[in-house]
Amino acid sequence: MARTEQTTLGIGMVGYAFMGAAHSQGWRTVGRVFDLPMRPVLAAVCGRDRAAVRAAADKHGWADAETDWRDLVARDDVQVVDICTPGDSHAEIAIAALEAGKHVLCEKPLANSVEEAEAMASAARRAREQGVVAMVGFNYRRTPAMAFARRMVEEGRIGAFRHVRISYLQDWLVDPEFPLTWRLEREHAGSGALGDLGAHIVDLAQYLSGETLVGVSAIAETFVRERPLPGGGSRGTVTVDDAVLFTGRLASGALAFFEATRMAAGRKNSLRLELNGERGSLAFDLERLNELSFHDHTEPVASAGFRRILVTEPDHPYLEAWWPPGHALGYEHTFVHQARDLVEAIATGSDPSPSFADGLQVQRVLAAVEESAEKNAVYTPVPAQEVP
Ligand SMILES: NC(=O)c1ccc[n+]([C@@H]2O[C@H](COP(=O)([O-])OP(=O)(O)OC[C@H]3O[C@@H](n4cnc5c(N)ncnc54)[C@H](O)[C@@H]3O)[C@@H](O)[C@H]2O)c1
Predict the structure, then answer these.
(1) Whole-angstrom Cα distance, residue 268 to residue 271?
(2) In which region does residue 304 sit, left (phi positive, over 0), alpha (psi from -120 to 50) or beta (all else)?
């Protein structure tokens, strides 16, 4: 269909700071790179401060601005509600949007608790019967190298899984004077490094392996327990973890190891993983996100070894629409790919991935990790329940 004949898809976004900027970039760009069955239109963005949200709308290319997310959800020109707020508002906004018949993209982690995530997944299932789609923003799946790794796993290139090893390390909390922002308060964030970074690596482990975690054993620590309140003055209590380590067992019996911390001095956004299977291994480092390392263990041992795959060929996932081979992509492209996959799911009526049910499953893993850490690493099963 020619671009001028495309049906439009009105987007309404809630929150316009870090993820709001990244999602705006995705929505602005996606229809100019990929041939889409529908044309996303940046209808309106929502914040709580009228002047600030108007300025954000102008900066990021949104036609209109709202100061109450309920008004955004009710707009006739909004068909997709994109939630880029802290976890404490995900459930309320997503459920209201789904009940109003709007498609939803919700940032990760899906919610701040299993109960909220269950209510959201349940609302998504009801809405799905009306053709409405709900997706979680686990954007690292949309790195071409990660999507290609998944394809290689599906093709059996590394065989049955033995090990998954993933760390996600940042260092912005090393300074004990860093202020007590919402990410350090349980009531707003749900958890600390666990929900912020751990959610991503749990999702990646399950996505890449095609399996779910069935149990975990965890330890966690809050190294700096009091921090200055934003704006200065007195100090407040940190109510989430600074760092968490956990082991896990996948459904097949493979073993997984996870580390998430915002206290790894010198590590800015270091997400590294390695998968070992009976036929080979795959390794990835987000700081070199156009590359995938692959070792084929079926090759003659004398010449076998890890080799670097430059994931920039048109045959690689998402790359058909971008630049010539070797012209690398970056972080922001994951949000363009996320927007593309959501538009395709809406237009074709297919199941979105990752769905709210996938987000709920990750939430159950996070809850099991917290329970295990509270009991000083007692092995804790992850309930294998359907969406209620
Ligand atoms: N996918 C990723 O890689 C990634 C990275 C960072 C954050 N996140 C997730 O994205 C979400 C937002 O994080 P962020 O880093 O953008 O936070 P942020 O603090 O940068 O931005 C939050 C925004 O939400 C707005 N907001 C809060 N409550 C609101 C309400 N009730 N109504 C309207 N607006 C409201 C704030 O004004 C702000 O604009 C969180 O769930 C976080 O876990 C995901």
Answers:
(1) 9
(2) beta
Q: Strand 213-221 vs strand 270-277: parallel, antiparallel, or unpaired?
A: unpaired
Pairwise CA distance, residues 44 & 363, whole Å: 30
User: What type of residue is 367?
Assistant: A
Q: Is the pTM of this model over 0.85?
A: yes
Token duo for residue 66 = 């709202």
Strands 226-228 and 64-66: unpaired
What domains can be seen in the chain, in order of their start residue?
Answer: 3-139 (3.40.50.720), 144-288+290-329 (3.30.360.10)
CB of residue 181 inside a 6 A radius of ligand 1: no
The continuous run of DSSP H or E covering 53 comes out as helix 50-60
Compute the distance between CA of residue 167 and CA of residue 256 in angstroms, rounded to an integer.
11
Q: Pick from 359, 286, 51, 39: which is nearest to 16 by CA?
A: 51
Pocket test for ligand 1, best of 59, 90, 107, 271 (most atoms within 8 A of CB): 107
Cα of 17 from ligand 1 centre, angstroms:
6
Residues of the chain with confidence (pLDDT) below 70: 1-5
**pLDDT of the residue at 5:** 61
The DSSP 8-state label assigned to residue 323 in this structure reads P
Distance 223 CA to ligand 1 centre (A): 24
Ligand 1 centroid to residue 282 C-alpha, Å: 32
